[in-house]
Write a structure and sequence with these properties.
- The N and C termini lie far apart (41 Å).
- The protein is built from eleven helices and twelve strands.
- The chain has one domain: Aldolase class I (TIM Barrel).
- An eight-stranded parallel barrel has the order 1-4-5-8-9-10-11-12, surrounded by eight helices. A two-stranded antiparallel sheet has the order 6-7.
- Helix 2 crosses helix 3, helix 4 packs across helix 5 and helix 8 runs parallel beside helix 10.
- By secondary structure, the chain is of the alpha/beta class.
- It binds ligand PBG.
- The site of ligand PBG has 11 residues, from helix 6.
Length: 329
């Protein structure tokens, strides 16, 4: 009797395994999120996201130097303002933290791709993603039209600062069209739009809300973010954003929505971006810290998760794991 190996032939050695690998992660497909705040020399650890920091602009530039070296082409910026107010005014102020950060990156690293989150929850005192309208009965809603007016100002402020892509994440209806129309009118035709098109009302944003101090002070986001049970609705949102002029579309979170990614990819002719969110990062890091998952560097669990997101169909991945994983590819 000969030993019977049929499928294992292609798994025999590292070289064969590498040759037949179907899904490959590449540094050039990652986008790294950064949290920026006012001040100097600040590098404040985010407790629920080990290895991630709130950075002042100077420290952010150092971080960008490091990731640029690793071959990561893009960053996604989130701002922590000096002051919050009901209308989130620092989001669209010329000297707002994001505008300052964009200008300084473009000056030092002109070819780093700068994407800016465009939302108000970090900037509003109530923590919602737009302008609050209260009814006489005490209930409230986020006013879509009034929020779009602020979106317009913010997109313009980010474009004037030199952003490459604005990334609206507030899930307001008509947001992509509003931004595209404004940018074109003001001749920022080269500025692109990465739309958070299918963004779910997820439990996995918890650590981000610590990091960006953006938890809603009352209520929840379920009247604008999507129900995790729905996939047709994701397709509808994505198609609408493409029709309105989005250059790339996003599914967020990634891990609990791999089926959404897989279902949507064949319907698209633009890059599909997946956001491996804060809670997904925190789960891996927490289990590693406890010794419940293997605490090697690069993290085997993170590598597996990111490979799964790519295998499901994501073209680009936004991930806090990016530098750690990319430096070992
Ligand atoms: C802002 C925004 C959120 C995230 C990205 N942009 C939080 C939210 O909607 O509450 C979450 C990112 C993450 O969890 O890593 N609207």
């Amino acid at each position: 009797m000969y030993p019977l190996t049929r499928y294992r032939r292609l798994r025999q050695t590292p070289i064969i395994r590498k040759m037949v690998q179907e899904t490959r992660l590449s540094a050039s497909n990652f986008i790294f999120p950064l949290f920026v705040k006012h001040g100097k020399g600040l590098r404040q650890p985010i407790l629920s996201m080990p290895g991630q920091y709130q950075l002042s602009v100077d420290e952010m530039l150092r971080e960008i130097q490091r990731i640029k070296h690793l071959g990561i082409p893009a960053v996604l910026l989130f701002g922590i303002p000096k002051k919050k107010d009901p209308l989130g005014q620092e989001a669209y102020a010329r000297k707002g933290i994001i505008q300052v950060a964009i200008r300084s990156i473009k000056k030092r690293f002109p070819d780093m791709i700068v994407m800016a989150d465009l939302c108000f929850c970090e900037y509003t005192s109530h923590g919602h993603c737009g302008v609050i309208k209260r009814s006489r009965h005490g209930s409230f809603d986020v006013d879509n039209d009034r929020t779009l007016q602020l979106v317009r100002k913010t997109a313009l402020a980010q474009a004037e600062a030199g952003v490459d892509f604005v990334a609206p994440s507030g899930m307001m209806d008509g947001v992509v069209k509003t931004i595209r129309t404004e940018l074109d009118k003001k001749r920022f035709t080269k500025v692109g739009i990465l739309s958070y098109a299918a963004k779910y009302a997820s439990a996995f944003y918890g650590p981000f809300r610590d990091a960006a101090q953006s938890a809603p002070q009352f209520g929840h986001r379920r009247s604008y973010q999507m129900d995790p049970a729905n996939i047709q609705e994701a397709i509808k949102e994505i198609m609408a954003d493409l029709a309105e002029g989005a250059d790339m579309v996003m599914v967020k979170p990634a891990l609990a929505y791999l089926d959404v990614i897989a279902r949507i990819r064949p319907k698209l002719t633009v890059p599909l971006v997946a956001y491996n969110v804060s809670g997904e990062y925190a789960m891996v890091k927490a289990a590693e810290e406890k010794g419940w998952l293997d605490k090697k560097i690069p993290s085997p669990a993170a590598l597996e998760v990111l490979t799964a997101i790519k295998r499901a169909g994501a073209d680009l991945i936004i991930s806090y794991h990016a530098p750690e994983i990319v430096s070992h590819l």
